[in-house]
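Researcher: Go.
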Amino acid sequence: MKNNVLKVIIPVIMIVLIIVAVGFRPASQLTWYGFDEGIQKAKIENKQVLIDIYTDWCGWCKVMDEKTYTDSRIVQYLNAKFVLIKLNPEKDGPVMFNGKTYNADYFAQGIGVNGYPATAFFESNAKLITLVPGYLKADEFLPILEYIGEKRYNDIGFDDFLKQREKN
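Model: Structure:
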């Protein structure tokens, strides 16, 4: 009798563990979308967009992926406020932006990218907010995310935002 019960219980427990492991994304991970899918998702969810513009050969891009984008504070804030897109201008195919098709390199140049990594922020309606060039440590990146995520750029300059943030 005990053997029969164990034969049933053990597979059930294994199935439950597999479902739990596969069904839930750990809070420490980010979900990145392709360009077209991410822009559409942002419109539907009325979320701002962060585009990580990188290349395969860029060492600082890799460091930002390994250090900045894995910081728990960054992950939590990005998951709550933004739709995330990765764009490799050297490899990605055409992108659809505001009803027009561009090759990825032309799009990146058009928004001002002249080095990697670069981080572009857009409103949910695809209006460019700003482009931030270069590698950013998590402690440098978080205030930028808060400034944009809280839409403070509509009423205060970034330097004043930082001063207010330091007071709190």
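Model: Confidence is low (pLDDT under 50) at residues 11-27.
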